[in-house]
Amino acid sequence: MRINKNKTNCCGCTACESICSHNAIRMTPDSLGFLYPEIDNDLCVDCGLCEQVCPFYEDYDKTQNLSAPMAYAIRHKDMHEVETSQSGAAFIAFSDWVLDQGGAVYGVGYAEHFRVIHKRAVTKEERNEFKGSKYVQSDVNTTFKQVKKDLKNGLVVLFSGTPCQTAGLSSYVGEKLCKNLYLIDIICHGVPAPLVWNDYLKYLEKKEKMSLVDVNFRDKSYGWTSHVETFRFKDSQAYKTYSYTFYTSILLRYSCSSCPFTNLQRPSDITIGDFWGIQKTNAAFLAEDNKGCSLVLVNTKKGKEWLDRIKGFLIYMPIELSICIQPNLQNPTILHPKRTDFEKDYAKYGFDYTMKKYGYIGWKCHIKCFIKRFVPYSIKSKFKQLIKFN
């Protein structure tokens, strides 16, 4: 039986493409740049491996999970690592241990023109590119095959990504090779569209009449709790800030609304996220300087042993699990009610028209930002009706 996926039950992890020895599956982009498997009927032999390897089901493998995860507030002792990371630099400590074993670390970085992709790192300098948030679905490309090759060669490997990506990799690699594979997933709100991100950068370059040389989805110089996107252009020393739509659900992949991993039985050894709500815990002191703190969930026995090895590099405190439950540890994100209309308009009319229509660039966007910052809550609804917010 060959894999039969639609947009609500495919996360684009590439496990099916990676396992097909006949090269009968190719990941192809839709109108927003999300990748889906396309089967070449002339090459497919109906072996069924693609269907078997797919992890995007409610009954994904949970056999290695603890009965309940162990929760920690964590910050790296090295403040330089904290200041150059998105939250508390927990990922740096975990990945440093793997690199010190002579292993390989896989995380999300950039290709040409800030295209978001998964990359392999064997040095700390290479690994540092994985720091910071990238609010776009990454292109995994041939990463799964590279990970399996490293494991067969005896390397310790860390793969970090969204829970659907770690689940896909674990299923593809198989139980026999998983001993030296360490998995970290993020508390994921959902993955925005790659093509819209690419078009947005082109829009900014056209607007500034300069090419981009750096991007920052959440500029920590404004403080850990801020959500400010900054962009630096060639021939310009200053960063410019723009308001974009990363924090809405109109750009998310359809499958994010039916994600089976939004619970406490995570498909990874470790789960990492920003520790929002830390003020309600006895670790509140780690947030007082607005430098950042990581929430870390230890999901497996392997994850517990891993954390024990690196505790000397961390400030950490056990946290009652019930206190630190975030929305996406309970339920999938609800898609924007106009998500389908947005995609249809984007495919037909392109970036400028669609983004202006839905209020993410142009005068609607400016009014939204003004209202958010300066208008009292009691009269915001009147403004929203006036400009027909989407």
TrEMBL record:
<keyword id="KW-0408">Iron</keyword>
<keyword id="KW-0411">Iron-sulfur</keyword>
<keyword id="KW-0479">Metal-binding</keyword>
<dbReference type="Pfam" id="PF12838">
    <property type="entry name" value="Fer4_7"/>
</dbReference>
<protein>
    <submittedName>
        <fullName>F420H2-dehydrogenase 40 kDa subunit</fullName>
    </submittedName>
</protein>
<dbReference type="InterPro" id="IPR017896">
    <property type="entry name" value="4Fe4S_Fe-S-bd"/>
</dbReference>
<feature type="domain" description="4Fe-4S ferredoxin-type">
    <location>
        <begin position="1"/>
        <end position="30"/>
    </location>
</feature>
<dbReference type="InterPro" id="IPR007525">
    <property type="entry name" value="FrhB_FdhB_C"/>
</dbReference>
<feature type="domain" description="4Fe-4S ferredoxin-type">
    <location>
        <begin position="35"/>
        <end position="65"/>
    </location>
</feature>
<dbReference type="GO" id="GO:0046872">
    <property type="term" value="F:metal ion binding"/>
</dbReference>
<dbReference type="Pfam" id="PF04432">
    <property type="entry name" value="FrhB_FdhB_C"/>
</dbReference>
<dbReference type="GO" id="GO:0051536">
    <property type="term" value="F:iron-sulfur cluster binding"/>
</dbReference>
<dbReference type="InterPro" id="IPR017900">
    <property type="entry name" value="4Fe4S_Fe_S_CS"/>
</dbReference>
<dbReference type="InterPro" id="IPR052977">
    <property type="entry name" value="Polyferredoxin-like_ET"/>
</dbReference>
